[in-house]
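Record type: monomer structure entry
Structure origin: computed from sequence
Chain ID: A
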Amino acid sequence: MNTRYFQIAAAALSLLATSAYADSRCTSAPSATAVTQETVLRQLADAGHTIERFEVTKGQCYKMRGWDKAGNRVKMVFDPADGRIVKSELHSRAS
């Protein structure tokens, strides 16, 4: 019985964490000063990242999911105004 409550609580926390991650808001920059998606993708590739998915969020951020050069799962959100990382998550690969 306690295991079931633990599973429900874990699922609820996971959902909250996912929602908070997806709701990042980025600043709106004039298109002349914005960092392009191509630039961010090139920088990620040059740093050794493997990109699984890259998209523009509802908050107008750039969101990337993939792996770093060490094989760890990563999620990053970038502000298109200046290319800075707004949020990032790193999930170490299992040994």
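Annotation 1: DSSP finds two helices and four strands in the chain.
Annotation 2: The chain has a mean pLDDT of 77.
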